[in-house]
Amino acid sequence: MQELTKEWLRKNDIVYDKIIFTQESKLPYVLDNKIDILIEDSPKNILEVSTKVPVLCFDNPYNKSINGDNIKRVYSWYDILNKIKQLNK
């Protein structure tokens, strides 16, 4: 999945500074790296990180019940790109 993600970003000319893949809590990485927005599917990470920065929740059956003021549900990488563009306006 990591390589598929990187390849898609490359093919679509999506620029990023760093991608962090981890099984642990992502909040310390978000704070330490001054991340502006997180793309996530894990309910635990979505809820935890959204207390500090906006989270784009990649829609999956296991996270359908997750919502909040700082959480936006996304359905594809194209949707993610559109949501990021909207946030930058």
Topology of helices and strands:
Layout (H helix, E strand, L loop, with lengths): L1 H10 L15 H6 L5 E3 L2 H7 L5 E4 L12 E4 L2 H11 L2
Parallel strand pairs: 1-2, 2-3
Question: Could you characterize the architecture of this molecule?
Answer:
There is one protein chain. By secondary structure, this protein is an alpha/beta fold. It has one domain. Helices cover 38% and strands 12% of the residues. The chain has helices at 2-11, 27-32, 43-49, 77-87; strands at residues 38-40, 55-58, 71-74. Strands 1-2-3 form a three-stranded parallel β-sheet, with helices on both faces. Helix 3 links the parallel strand 1 (38-40) and strand 2. The protein is globular and about 30 Å long. It starts with a helix and ends with a helix. The mean pLDDT is 92.
Strand content: 5-15%
Distance between the termini: 30 Å
Largest sheet, in brief, is: 3 strands, parallel
Catalogue the unreliable spans.
Answer: none
**Overall morphology:** globular
Any key phrases for this structure?
single chain, 89 residues, alpha/beta, 3-stranded parallel sheet, 38% helix, globular
Summarize the structure in short:
The chain is α/β, with parallel strands linked by helices and 89 residues long.
